[in-house]
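Researcher: Before we compare anything, I want clean individual predictions. No alignment, no superposition, just each chain on its own. First chain goes here; please echo the sequence and then give the structure tokens.
Model: Echoing the first chain and its structure:
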Amino acid sequence: MQSVHLLIEGFGHALTPINLLWVVIGCLLGTAVGVLPGLGSSMAVALLLPLTFALDPTGAFIMFAGVYFGGLFGDSTMAILMNTPGQSSAIASTFEGHKMALSGRAPQALATAAIGAFIGGIVSCVVVVFLAPQLADLSASFGPAEYFALALFAFAATSSVVADSVLKGLAALVLGIGISVIGIDSVSGTERFTFGVPELFDGVSLVTVTVAVLALGEVLFTASRIRRQRNDATVRSSGRPFLSRAELKEAAPAWFRGTAIGLPFGVIPVGGADVPTFMAYGLERRLDRRRKDPQFGHGAIRGLAAPEAAGNATTGTAMGALLALGLPISSTAAIMLAAFRQYGLQPGPLLFDRAPELVWGLLASFFIAMVVLLILNLPFAPLWAKLLLIPEPYLYAGIAVFCGLGIYATSSSVFDLFMLLGIGILGFVLRRYGVPLAPLMIGMVLGPLAETNMRDALLSSDGDYAVFFQSPIAIVLYIVLLGALAYTGWGRLRARRNERAEAEASA
């Protein structure tokens, strides 16, 4: 009941005119960026990060949350209408969603996606309201050894589970940690990787790295690709933007199954919404095979409903994990963690005590954002498709200029602009060779946390490394991590065996 009372107070903060405006702006920006192929909520938050320091923390994070939710909504719009997912989390929605659109059911497909996203998001928000305080209480028992185990868990999970190649995932992680340790060591005062450059003594700004890797790197990557024929044959979405009773009956079980699959992945650092969307789609496909009249492959509404609900169910619980544990499970969450630190705030149990207006106002804004996004996406989805009519040279040139202006506005340093360009080229190279970006961002954000807590643990134990294995919480984290790695390794080994068997059979 205390959580309900605090949530009601949070609605009092979130429903003020200015904060309500930030909710709407965040939802609009997130949806607009989401419908543009290659862009996403992480890029939108990265671009907004330098410009929000003039806002109060509550307004800034309410807008970030709207962008986070809106990005997933916008991704599915293009996945359905043009078979062009904005982010990998919307790939599963293209399989049946685009087939629905091609068969003349585009409005029903968009309505299925919007309602599924709404259900998944609302359920996850309700779970977070009651779960986040308990997670915060749990994290109050964390010491240096536990936080180091948590950071190690995030490192290993994101680099080995999310990436197709474990080597590429580890390379991105090491690169992120390496960037995070540049500067003067706070304990010994020793220069680390500064090469005698005075501008690097204070380290590399996380804002610069974020904007360079996620935004400018994407611009350079898009500009480098051979111009391909644009798919201007957008499926017309005219007709009733709602579902019939029979369609609702068909989609409802898939919505709730997808929500149940997506909820746990908000607190498991495996890259966000990508994994649960494919799991939800795979489950519905297996269930469809048992039916007398299988629908998959012909525009099955359940094949769209489940991934949409699963993807959006991760967002609320991901924010709960970020607020209560300080654990980012995706690149977008990692950027928001960096924003908390820019405001001098540290997510965790103390945040609930020191800034309750911010925490509960932010949680209340999740519910408001879901309603706003449902209103924006049900009737106005065809309008979002028109953003694709903007010529790519103008669109990406504008983003590049916006990157430079944002960085210069925060630092007033020409050196930071050159660093922005250099790291942006690095981001382009990573994309070019398929190196995942999420481990890099996780390493950049959690690297200092892991280093600080490792030092504190060793100092408290007089250099005894056994301190990392004496805590029950740390041991549980290590066991779960080993189990996840073993399960992932076995799954990949089995997939390779199946591929070999199929190749031998075809030969």
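Researcher: Okay. Second chain, same rules.
Model: Second chain and its structure:
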Amino acid sequence: MKTITVIGSGLIGRSWSMVFTSGGFRVKIYDNQPEQAAKAITEIRKQMEELEEAHMLRGELTAVQQLSLISSYDDLAQALEGAFFVQECVFENLEVKQSVFQDTERLVGEDVILSSSTSCLVPSDVFSKVQNRRRCLVSHPVNPPYYVKLVELVPHPETTAAVMNATYALMTKVGQAPIRLKKEIDGFALNRVQAAITAESWRLVQDGIVSVKDIDLVMSEGLGMRYAFIGPMETMHLNAPEGLGDYMNRYGRSITRMLNSFGPVPDFLSQTSKNIINEMCELIPSDQQHLSGRRERRDQLLLGLAKLKKDH
């Protein structure tokens, strides 16, 4: 049975652990804070039992069987022993991640793959202090990865094709939907697309074109309905009688005209931005009770969507 080490026992670390055990892998969770990894297993047990009751537990093993594959460690060397793959999930701080991988490299063999969950730090920075960078890459999940299956695989400039292929195969085996970036870029693919949507949504509210509530409806009741199943390229391909080329012949000039009318990148810290934030907080107050309730609602909706996509 192959072993994967997850470094960091927060939300992403716990989710990765659940994903890997659903594929039948043994998972060793490490956290440098005493007892935190053990507490993470308690939280994982609760989630798995709820998922099993809702018939949404991933994989062929029962919750009890999957839980038996997870163990917790406060000692990094013990956590890394026997692992063929390491998934780092510490908080988004470059120096901390660099230190983690320096320590990890000293304790594992040359063939062990080192993977980071970073959402915005490029691999050439994250792994700059690693000696053997050929086995390093970013595997960027979408939060929460148990329900949203996309994983962006981003290579370091020195990453070998074999490491990319092995990680792609692993992610596919555990039920994720991996994509390969051909080279590193700030923000990767998902966050760059998300930033473009964020910027134009912000501008439309800022310029008095539409309200916060209504711009969210543009996505949740409009674009998002399609994008939950097909992407922007296929959407265009299907929206013209003869496909994507026909679509661009019909609408390409209009798209160019609209893009040229876009304003500059918004100042997200301006007084106008504070007005937008206040408008959002009127809809959903920013206290923990309201935010926790909406996050729970989000996860339940994602759970239902995941089930729908699985069944179709």
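Researcher: What stands out in the second chain?
Model: The chain has a mean pLDDT of 95. Additionally, Residues 190-229+267-311 form a domain with the N-(1-d-carboxylethyl)-l-norvaline Dehydrogenase; domain 2 fold (CATH 1.10.1040.10).
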